[in-house]
Amino acid sequence: MRTAMREIRLLAEFGNAAQLIAAVERLRRERYHDLETYTPFDIPELDANLGLRRPRLGWFVLAAGLAGLVAAYGIQWWANVHSYPLNVGGRPLHSIPAFIPATFEGTVLAASLASFFGALLVLRFPKLWSIEDEVPDFYRSSIDRFWLAMHTFASDHDRAHAEQLLKESGALRTIARVGTEWQSVGRSLILIMVLFAGMNACSDRVGQGFDWKRMRAQPRYEPFGGSRFFQDGMAMRTPPPGTIPREAVSTSFDTAAVDTATLSRGANRFQVFCAVCHGVAGNGNSVVGDNMLPIKPPLLTSAPVVRLGATQLYAVITDGFGHMPSYAAQLTPADRWAVVAYVRTLQRGSAR
Amino acid sequence: MLLDVVDDGTLTTELLAPNWTPSRTWWPLFVISGALSILFFVAIGVTLGRGIGAWGNNIPVAWAYGIVDFVWWIGIGHAGTFISAFLLLLNQRWRGSINRIAEAMTLFALVNASLFPLLHLGRPWFFYWLIPYPATTGVWPNFKSSLPWDVAAISTYFTVSLMFWYLGLVPDLAAARDCAPSLLRRRIYGIFALGWRGRATEWRQYRLAYTLLAGLATPLVISVHSIVSLDFSITQLPGWHSTIFPPYFVVGAIYSGFAMVLMLILPIRRVFGLQRIITKQHLDNMGKLLLVTGSMVAYAYVCEAFVAWYSGDPFERYTVFFARPMGPYAIVFWVMTVCNVITPQFFWSSRLRTSPIALFIAGMLIWAGMWMERFIIIVGALNRDFLPSSWHFYAPTWVDWSLLIGSIGLFSLLFLAFLRWVPFVPVSEVKRLRFEERRDAA
Predict the structure, then answer these.
(1) Is the pTM of this model over 0.95?
(2) Which of A58, A72, A99 shows the shortest C-beta gap to B212?
(3) String of b and e for B184-208 (b: at least 16 CB within 10 Å)?
(4) Is B80 helix (H, G, I), strand (E, B) or coil?
(5) B76 occurs within a structural domain
(6) How many CB atoms lie within 10 A of CB B32?
(7) CATH code for position B224
(8) Phi/psi at A14 (nearest 5 deg)?
(9) Does the pLDDT value for residue A181 go beyond 60?
């Protein structure tokens, strides 16, 4: 806040609120400004004499409330009218009365969040340390003491006069000067430097400063890089003969191996997992497929799918494609091949 | 009354003392509510493990204890907001002594209230489907249904109540930080106090933000129970399909919450010796509020019956004039009527209004009576719908009872934790009241 980074040049402690109110009023009459008070309870009577400006939090809250209103209504419109239109007993998709409750709640939620976090932001909270804390017994400002801080004086004489006024108003004690918060920044800097010095000591080469390069420059080979260690001069080794990638265990498809058992297994799996969207005949004729937005599942019997290789079909089942999720968890590799074989059968059937 | 207190320092120390040393009654109560909370979690575990079949619900009574408890708890929460926000806006200074307790009640009641509809989903782990987010399935919640309205209302209500409660707490947490007997406590309270020092600038922002939140919470609290009532009134069922439901529910909610506030503040007042802070004046005001809201609830009952008769709808007439007073749950209906309609009428007498015993007993009766009201509205309407062939008598199972009793246990547990570790009387507001009383006396 205003006073946070500023030097406090006079601090006075009062035993009760009435004395503080009177003292502030008197200082104000004598044209002192830049005052701050610290009180255990709210004293709105002080505001006028402290010359505080009216906080502008209200406008921020209003703006947030309106934004919440637009967002809540917009989400409902987007969801129920645009992205996922659902016909509920023929009621209109854009149903204004039904959108009112959530819109209202969205407005209140956004405005309330703005009031709460706006106030924290303006006050620069959380702020766990402040210069006043260094004053002995200042903590009683939250219990039963009333403090007054002054920041600027035209001259030393001016300050002496203020001090006199405060004492006359019943101040229990006055404190001449409290340092700035920059002291604490300095203290933190020293602490950070000490920490760095400690890190320095961890280096192999004591006394040569911290070796920043060590984390980046690691002794290792880059892929496809050269090597002086191996005779062929390459860092990468050729795998032993006959090695295949883990994923490729069953990417081979032997058409000769397709028998009636495989096909009926494929038909069974297809009807359980694929037919819900692609249709029992693979022609896309299903309730789910018809309602799928924005893109419907492709016809398995259409020319582009027929042109796909068996391995490509296998890959689509394994990894998914577009809206279609992966079926690797539901179908074993053998089942996937069986499904591919069955899809081929469907394709041939429809071509005939 | 506050004039009797020697000074602000003593006042602060006295009010914060329960946070440093628990009273003798605290531990036994904590153990009992802990045991009941365990029962609650066991019942939740059974519900999750075995499914909703563990409850007594069955078609046509698809909604029973789960929804009764939900409506009851969320209604109880409403009085807390009413006391802290409505009365703040109306400049009712007396609210200062009890608003923190009432707000905490709101929060903990909401914790319970939000659990019941989640459990009632059947598959609570999919509750996030109710939240509009761009899912890979491309599916969105249907905002023409009342379920997403409930989600919006409850989540907003909980968030706003929490912020309102916490913001009000900050100056007192600062006082707790500065009074705390050990360094660890000073640190913990210090972190939660966010660095409050009581500057005039801080008080000014605080006052504005607090009033803004009160102004926002006031229409919010009305909207929340209105939305809850819409769950019922947008259906076709006789006994539910009625336009008087939103105001009827809001008044009933505040009424039940006042009953609960009384059940909380009267023992607290006695155990912690807060007769100077929560005065006879408070009891008198609370008694008057019970009388007013109770009479409004009675008026709503009469209106409901009148509308049922005036509608000319035979099903509506049957539900209100036959099924309720003479049907399978007639006993619940009559006990409810006595508890909710007759009890508050005793508080025309100012002697009873200031009697803690009378208020406590009335609070308990109304508290239970309002639960029965929800039971009558929900189960009483569902168990006899349009088709007599599908009529079904609903009986709760042990899981239903454990959820109800266990939720009271969880509430008590949270509330006891609050009494133990949070300044439960707004110390700074009480100091302000004392200042004003002294000034007015001078």
Answers:
(1) no
(2) A58
(3) ebbebbbebbbbbbbbbbbbbbbeb
(4) helix
(5) yes
(6) 14
(7) 1.20.1630.10
(8) -120, 155
(9) no
* pLDDT (0 to 100) of residue A209: 52
DSSP annotation string for B37-49: HHHHHHHHHHHHH
Place of tokens 């690797």: A328
Residues B36, B410 contacting (CB under 8 angstroms): yes
Question: Whole-angstrom Cα distance, residue A47 to residue A24?
Answer: 10
**In the structure encoding, which two tokens stand for residue A163, read together?**
């001090």
Compute the residue count for chain A: 352
Do the Cβ atoms of A141 and B197 come within 8 Å? yes
d(CA B363, CA B179): 35
Kindly report the average pLDDT of chain A as a whole number. Answer: 84
Taking the C-alpha atoms of residue A95 and residue A92, their distance in angstroms, rounded to an integer, is 6
The answer to whether B228 touches B74, Cβ cutoff 8 Å, is yes
- 3-state secondary structure string across chain A: CCCCCCCECEEEEECCHHHHHHHHHHHHHCCCCCEEEECCCCCHHHHHHHCCCCCCHHHHHHHHHHHHHHHHHHHHHHHHHHHCCCCCCCCCCCCHHHHHHHHHHHHHHHHHHHHHHHHHHHCCCCCCCCHHHHCCCHHHHHCCCEEEEECCCCCHHHHHHHHHHHHHCCCCEEECCECCCHHHHHHHHHHHHHHHHHHHHCCCCCCCCCCHHHHCCCCCCCCCCECCCCCCCECCCCCCCCCCCHHHHHCCCCHHHCCHHHHHHHHHHHHHHHHHHHCCCCCCCCHHHHHCCCCCCCCCCCHHHHHCCHHHHHHHHHHCECCECCCCCCCCHHHHHHHHHHHHHHHHHHHC
CB B33 within 8 A of CB B412: yes
Q: How far apart are CA B99 and CA B89, in angstroms?
A: 13
The answer to whether A147 touches A12, Cβ cutoff 8 Å, is: yes
Tell me the per-residue pLDDT of B213-244, one tens digit each, with 9 for 90 and over.
Answer: 999 999 999 999 999 999 999 998 988 988 89
The reply to whether residue B142 touches residue A80, judged by beta carbons under 8 angstroms, is yes
For residue B135, being part of any structural domain is answered with no
CA distance B68 to B375: 6
Main-chain dihedrals φ then ψ at residue B433, nearest 5 degrees: -60, -40
**Does the pLDDT of residue A54 top 90, yes or no?**
no
Q: ipTM, 2 decimals?
A: 0.93
| Residue contacts between A and B (CB atoms, under 8 Å) | 199
User: Is B159 close to A113, i.e. CB distance below 8 A?
Assistant: yes
Which domain range does residue B148 map to?
A: 2-130+142-441
**Contact at 8 Å (CB) between B220 and A108?**
yes
Are the Cβ atoms of A36 and B199 closer than 8 angstroms? yes
Max alpha carbon distance in chain B (Å)?
A: 76
Residues in contact with B441: Cβ distance below 8 Å, sequence separation at least 6, in sequence order: B3
Q: Specify burial of residue A138 (Cβ count, 10 A radius: 0-12, 13-18, 19+).
A: buried
* Position B137 in a domain: no
Domains of chain A with CATH codes: 1-180 (no CATH), 182-215 (no CATH), 249-351 (1.10.760.10)
Q: Is residue B265 part of a domain?
A: yes
B195 → closest Cβ in A86, A118, A127: A127
Helix A96-122 and helix B146-179: axis angle, to 10°?
Answer: 20
Query: What tokens were used for A107?
Result: 């407005």
How far apart (Å, rounded) are the C-alpha atoms in residues A6 and A33?
Answer: 14
Q: Write out chain A residues lying below 8 Å of B207, CB-based.
A: 42, 44
How is residue B72 written in tokens? 């009851």
